């Protein structure tokens, strides 16, 4: 079943002005419920713009995006967004950050404590409940960031280069952890990255956008066995896909 459907979507910033810039052109995509989708494309091709439209932060100038059959207009709780820069509140402990969304919606103390227990364990922060963000490493802050979005119980996670600011080793660890989290929760993920290895490692399906204006130039189904381990990164299968996608991006 399709969770999110993008239909005939085009977008021009400053439409009708001298500075008009068309960034997306006739995008048609559908994302299956529970699938892990990755969007790749060269810098400036419109990946973030497309993701922000799914989040409801921008309205497309043409076409539409639907979630469970309803047109997306504005942000909503069903869609959680994770950016490259984490959105952790420095003045709240790890636990308070995790339960921020439920608390804001009036969840009881008991419910908040339950949310904190569940997500702190699932993102691997047990023992750090009462720490402050400044006491954490970049990877740990990212775990808080992701746990906080999951704690809102969205149907769809929209992730824009969430691991882009992490060192290579931490990034690999976070990819493995995200895969586990996705397998446990079964939520639909739409993930944007520049990094082809990351894309192939994580995805059920990689969508390749052409250079600006972004168009869907290729869709690659990734059939590598799960759970994917670090060995797979060096496998011939992964490298062959990477070469193919690399060539597509180059042209
Ligand atoms: N709010 C805006 N107003 C005008 N132009 C914008 C706006 N946001 C983005 N753009 C332009 O649209 C184009 C696409 O930007 P976008 O951020 O979607 O690209 P991207 O594919 O995410 O790039 P990157 O890989 O570098 O993150 C860029 O040329 C950018 O300058
Ligand atoms: Mg971007």
Structure in words:
The chain is an alpha/beta fold and 251 residues long. The chain has a domain of 153 residues: Rossmann fold. The strands form 2 sheets. The chain has a 6-stranded mixed sheet, sandwiched between helices. A 4-stranded antiparallel sheet has the order 2-1-4-5, covered by helices on one side. A hairpin with a 6-residue loop joins strand 9 and strand 10. The longest helix is centred in the C-terminal third of the chain and has 18 residues. It binds adenosine-5'-triphosphate and magnesium ion (MG). The site of adenosine-5'-triphosphate has 12 residues, from strand 2 and helix 1. Magnesium ion binds next to helix 1.
Unreliable stretches, pLDDT < 50, 5 or more residues? none
Ligands and ions found: adenosine-5'-triphosphate, magnesium ion
Number of helices: 8
Strand order of the largest sheet: 6-7-8-3-9-10
N→C terminal distance: 33 Å
**Spatial shape:** globular
Order of helices and strands: EEEHEEEHHHHEHEHEEH
> Helical amount among residues, as a percent range?
25-40%
Strand content: 15-25%
Mean pLDDT over the residues? 96
Report the strand count.
Answer: 10
CATH class of the domain at 1-78 and 156-165 and 187-251: Alpha Beta
User: How does the major sheet shape up?
Assistant: 6 strands, mixed
Which second-level CATH architecture of the domain at 1-78 and 156-165 and 187-251 applies?
Answer: 3-Layer(aba) Sandwich
Q: Which structural category do the helix and sheet elements fall into?
A: alpha/beta
Radius of gyration: 18 Å
CATH names the topology of the domain at 1-78 and 156-165 and 187-251 as Rossmann fold
The CATH homologous superfamily of the domain at 1-78 and 156-165 and 187-251 is named P-loop containing nucleotide triphosphate hydrolases
């Amino acid at each position: 079943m399709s969770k999110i459907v993008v239909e005939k979507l085009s977008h021009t910033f400053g439409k009708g002005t001298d500075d008009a810039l068309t960034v997306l052109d006739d995008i048609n995509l559908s994302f299956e419920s529970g699938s892990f989708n990755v969007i790749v494309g060269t810098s400036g091709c419109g990946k973030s713009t497309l993701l922000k439209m799914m989040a409801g932060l921008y309205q497309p100038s043409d076409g539409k995006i639907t979630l469970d059959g309803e047109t997306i207009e504005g942000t909503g709780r069903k869609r959680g967004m994770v950016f490259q820069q984490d959105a952790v509140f420095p003045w709240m402990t790890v636990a308070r950050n995790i339960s921020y969304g439920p608390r804001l919606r009036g969840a009881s103390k008991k419910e908040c404590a339950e949310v904190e227990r569940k997500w702190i364990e699932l993102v691997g922060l047990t023992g750090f409940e009462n720490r402050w963000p400044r006491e954490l490493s970049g990877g740990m802050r990212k775990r808080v960031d992701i746990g906080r979005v999951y704690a809102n119980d969205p149907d769809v996670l929209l992730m824009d280069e969430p691991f882009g600011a992490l060192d290579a080793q931490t990034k690999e660890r976070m990819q493995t952890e995200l895969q586990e989290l996705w397998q446990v929760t079964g939520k639909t993920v739409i993930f944007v990255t520049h990094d082809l290895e990351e894309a192939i490692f994580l995805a059920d399906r990689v969508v390749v956008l052409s250079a600006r204006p972004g168009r869907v130039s290729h869709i690659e189904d990734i059939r590598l066995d799960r759970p994917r381990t670090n060995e797979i990164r060096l496998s011939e299968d992964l490298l062959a896909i990477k070469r193919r996608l690399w060539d597509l991006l180059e042209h």
